[in-house]
Specification:
By secondary structure, the protein is an alpha+beta fold. It is built from 6 helices and 15 strands. It starts with 15 loop residues before the first helix and ends in a 19-residue tail after the last strand.
Amino acid sequence: MKCLRWLVVVTVFIPWAEVYAPPRRPEIHGIALVRLQISNMDASGHFYQDILGLGRPSRDCFTPQHAAPCYSLNLSQELEITPSQGTQDFKALETLGFLVQDAAEMRRYLLANGVKCGELKSGQFGGDKFVETSDPEGHNVLFLAAIRAGSQIGYPVDHYIIHAGFVVHDRAAEDKFYKDILGFHIYWHGGMKDGEDNWVDMQVPDGTDWIEYMLGVPDNATHKQLGVMNHIALGVPDIHAAQQQLIKNGWKGTEEPKIGRDGKWQLNLYDPDETRVEMMEFKPTNEPCCSAYTGPHPHP
């Protein structure tokens, strides 16, 4: 008797949409780093290390290609300073870095959405990966997937960049990048007068940190004006306690804490290049002007 062998062919149909679906945006959890240009490393080092109390800078930065020192603020954030090129018109806030779930997938996502970016690079601690691009206003933007362990660094746990602000001339172009492609959303917006927007806070899609569009800045703004606009904000639980600590650290500023239009206590300091460092309480004390908050507030 002959044995009959049957060949069964199973055809698996994969939906066309699954085969050709574009990559999904990886989660963006918050600000990972801010890189500031400075003109005098010694003077700025005194301000950031001693007055702000960020501790001694190190070379253990997220990105090993960065030659200047960085300050480890907490487990997932650092402040980097880099020498300017000698011009008074330098862009103080040079680079923004965001903490993402997957840097390789972020690169694929950016390319799929028509955003030019560099190759995937390895960070300081081997497993870290990052990719760089730029926003429409010319800021370097870095997406970092960090796995740095707390035992590898020493950091003060009471420093946390809750937002970074920069001059925006073309809001529509910035919105296309940060809102439409990256998924940022408006956290709060307002102005010096009711009914106008001078500040638009764009919160990361998967966290509480935000960037701040500084709108309506004239093209002929002075160096001092630009220093006010291009800034970072450090979150504090008590603005008056923070002020007293700054005075103990040697700060001789004349500004006093005040409640901003967003309803939060704040205090402004300025580094030797007149770049503003804003101390801000995590949550509002008063009702904000102009608009309601639409996202969660940061916390210590």
